[in-house]
Amino acid sequence: MSPDTPLPPQPPDQLIRHLAYAQASIMVLECLMLTLVEQQILKKDQLVSAIETVIATKRQMLAEHDSPEISAVALGVLGTLANSVSATEA
């Protein structure tokens, strides 16, 4: 299925479940990233750099019209994640 092919409609409860899993996944990821910094396993700058690489990739996907609505929202989520990691004390 190409990125431009619309997905079949999903029942509202299934869509809510997918969104809930996505939100929970980001929350767990953020918690783990902050723990890695707090435990001095990784440096804050290393994680921010990794997130910035993902942001650059998503910007490229957006420029190539690869799921533009999702890519635009994902960029906001990634920016928030980078800011959260940057603001942590370590």
Describe the structure.
- The chain is mostly helical.
- It has a domain at 48-90.
- The protein has three helices and no strands.
- α2 (44-63) runs antiparallel to α3.
- The relative contact order is 0.14.
Uncertain runs are none
Shape summary: flat
Overall SS class = mainly alpha
| Overall pLDDT level | 90
Helix and strand sequence: HHH
Count of helical regions: 3
Radius of gyration of CA atoms, rounded to a whole number: 16 Å
Approximately how much beta-strand content do the residues carry?
under 5%
Helix content: over 70%
Topology, element by element:
Layout: H1 12-38, H2 44-63, H3 68-87
Relevant terms:
90 residues; mainly alpha; 3 helices; 0% strand
Would you kindly provide a brief summary of this structure?
With 90 residues, the chain is mainly α.
